TrEMBL record:
Signal peptide: none annotated. GO terms for biological process: dGTP catabolic process. This is Deoxyguanosinetriphosphate triphosphohydrolase. Transmembrane segments: none annotated. SMART domains: HDc. PROSITE patterns: HD.
Length: 416
């Protein structure tokens, strides 16, 4: 038989062959089996143990179906499929949990640029020798494609705008898969979207991806799913507290000179390495292992903060050192040890008085032949983009015994 059949709980049986099968066999892609799609969300949603591996296969499968519906030519179809398959290849352990650490400690990398460098063969994320190993750029080239084109597509820099939109846009294959998959594995029914309809109403018009006017409801349904999954799952405060604790444990380890190649590791390896360290990192790893999570002392919405307070917190959001300093001051004020009071933010946009709506927006092709931005055609889209942010802007957590004290003094300590 030509190729392989993979059985997926979301999309059923999918067949992979040729360049896709060869890329799936690489150690870089297999590594994604050991990286959870939703970081520490399994502490709240016990079923959320799915990996970046299966999500990447799912994104490929949707890309394949979309390419057929839109009737892309063979080269564009293969390029889109490779981009969808490899879009998360640079993800480090626990997916998005350590994003801030990349920016501050490992300045030259984030998961997007790591992915680019892996596809271009500039960096090897695999430790140790593997016999008869094929490398991603060589595989891509052996089928007559350019690794640079695949990397550009993943970074949203590809010259053909519509192909980039299919991977990073208001309605894209990555998002469709993760919403369906995350809803399935968390058991949260909000992520259900009408994929059959969505794939039928997308088309290319004047060099861009547009949605047919008849398909507005399918897009609205997807936006509802996304907005609800954000507040219900992605920014669930307990998940955020656990991720904050793990981030602090890694920061402590890095400050002491350990785990500097954490970005190459898998979830399990980071956990074991942290647990083996003395002091705070080991203690935190054990707390997370047995779900002994800090408690939320403060969950403040953007409305509860003055413009000045938002500005102060925004500087802490952008600057790890500033955030660490505030955390130390809070810990001192309540008699806690360093690392026992953590300050988390939802997203920076929330800190601003008006959430900035995402700039990239899909256009709607009206029956008259003219194009209109989605938010002009449906007021629901505007409201949903605002709704995508969770109810809290600022979260402060600590062990239970300090919660009341933190609640009393946090504003005075941070803003005076």
């Amino acid at each position: 038989m030509d190729g392989k059949i993979i059985h997926d709980p979301i999309h059923g049986s999918m067949k992979i062959k040729g360049v896709i099968l060869d890329l799936v066999k690489t150690p870089e892609f297999q590594r994604l089996r050991s990286i959870r799609q939703l970081g520490l969300a399994y502490l709240v949603y016990p079923g959320a143990n799915h990996s970046r591996f299966e999500h990447s296969l799912g994104a490929y499968n949707i890309a394949r179906r979309l390419a057929q519906e839109i009737e892309l030519d063979k080269d564009e179809k293969t390029l889109l499929e490779m981009g969808a398959l490899l879009h998360d290849i640079g993800h480090g352990p626990f997916s998005h949990t350590f994003e801030q650490i990349y920016k501050h400690y490992v300045k030259e990398y984030d998961h997007m640029h790591l992915g680019q460098n892996i596809i271009l063969g500039k960096i090897d994320i695999i430790d140790g020798e593997i016999e008869s190993r094929e490398f991603i750029p060589e595989i891509i080239e052996s089928y007559g494609y350019s690794p640079k084109e695949v990397a550009d597509l993943i970074l949203g820099k590809y010259e053909k705008r519509y192909l980039g939109q299919m991977l990073h846009g208001d309605v894209d294959v990555d998002q469709i898969d993760y919403l369906m998959r995350d809803a399935h594995y968390t058991g949260v029914a909000h992520g259900i979207i009408d994929i059959e309809r969505l794939l039928k109403v997308l088309k290319i018009h004047e060099g861009q991806l547009v949605v047919d006017e008849k398909g507005i409801e399918a897009v609205e349904g997807m936006m509802v799913a996304r907005a609800l999954m954000y507040s219900r799952v992605y920014f669930h405060h307990t998940v955020k507290i656990a991720e904050g604790m793990l981030t602090r444990a890694l920061e402590f380890a890095l400050e002491e000179g350990h785990l500097w190649d954490f970005w190459k590791m898998t979830d399990c390896r980071v956990f074991v390495e942290l647990e083996d360290l003395e002091g705070y990192p080991g203690e935190i790893a054990r707390r997370i292992k047995y779900r002994d999570i800090y408690k939320a002392a403060v969950l403040a919405s953007a409305d509860e903060l003055s413009a000045e307070e938002k500005k102060e917190l925004l500087s802490a959001y952008r600057n790890v050192k500033r955030r660490q300093e505030i955390e130390r001051n809070l810990a001192d004020a309540v008699g806690a040890k360093e690392g026992e009071v953590i300050l988390e933010f939802s997203i920076a946009d929330l800190m601003l008085s008006e959430p900035r709506l995402k700039a990239t927006e899909i256009n709607v092709l009206l029956h008259t032949g003219e194009l209109q931005p989605l938010t002009k055609v449906t007021p629901l889209a505007n409201a949903l983009k605002r709704r995508q942010t969770p109810r809290w802007a600022v979260l402060i957590a600590s062990p239970a015994k300090y919660v009341n004290k933190v609640r009393e003094i946090w504003k005075k300590v941070i803003f005076s």
